[in-house]
Amino acid sequence: MLIDVTKTIAITPNGMLHAGNPEDTISFCKTDLHENLSVFQGLLCEIIATGILVFFACGVWDPRNEKNSDSVPMRFGFCITVLCFIFIPYTGCSLNPARSIAPAIWNGYWNNHWIFWIGPISGAIISSIIYRCLFLPKIKKNEDNQNTLTGVVTPTENLTLGGIDDADKLCITDLHPNVSAIQGLLIESLSTSILMLVACAIWDLRNEKNTDSVPLKFGFTVATLATAFGPYTGCSMNPVRTLGPAVWNNQWSHHWIYWFGPIGGALLSSISYRTIFGVQRSVEEENVPERVALNSVDISQKTELKEVSKINV
């Protein structure tokens, strides 16, 4: 018998899936470098991409720009879209260890995986240093011996909001005062699991004919999630997005939530996607002569074999 590979789809009918080899779908959603890209080039791509994202996030969440926060979700969405257009062909534009580790675990695929940890973490820390050095207001004493703010690059009068108490909180991710730690953990898990679910669907090989708008899909997904969850936790969905500013501002309030939440949500979502939409292989072995049991041979055949052997002797 021929080896038969069948698809077991729990929810989505076969007719709604577009393309792809069932034998390969077990490893979809994995993150790796383009075959023509060196390890060093891939590392630089992830450092630069994540650095741009964190620098942009610091500018958006700068408390002095509070009056311009009406379109923050769309800004993040467009930023992700642009980064995906640029870096997806080379590294997949992960930007997020939680996005990479979940598929790596259940695919057992760890090729160049360290790049998607070292790159984003390095890029986030470097970018937050640059933003802090350029735009963090300095505190000095005025003639009345009172603390005042002076900008390093951006003049204070050009900033919409600024306070001495906010000088060490640039780009910090934290929970809303009315949100508990458990609620924050669940919100980060839920938002990241939705993002991971979209990522798995986008990179599913059965949808390879619909990859022309991948950056827009990621961008609008991030914008939608930021609109829904941003007011409660900042909708980080990315541990390194929170780590970089926390390191250089020395602000660690509820920091653990932004590691356990995204990573846990990504793992749960990726496992669920594989369980619901994954491909199950069914293989039936051929009955080759070497594997036929001796007692399955007819007695008359055994007698004929003995007679033939006597004649040959």
TrEMBL record:
It is a multi-pass membrane protein. GO terms for cellular component: plasma membrane. The chain crosses the membrane at residues 40-60, 72-90, 114-134, 256-273. InterPro entries: Aquaporin-like, Aquaporin_transptr, MIP. Keywords: Membrane, Transmembrane, Transmembrane helix, Transport. It is found in: Membrane. GO terms for molecular function: channel activity. The keyword Metal-binding does not apply. The keyword Transport applies. Its main location: membrane. Coiled coil: none annotated. Belongs to the MIP/aquaporin (TC 1.A.8) family. This is Aquaporin.
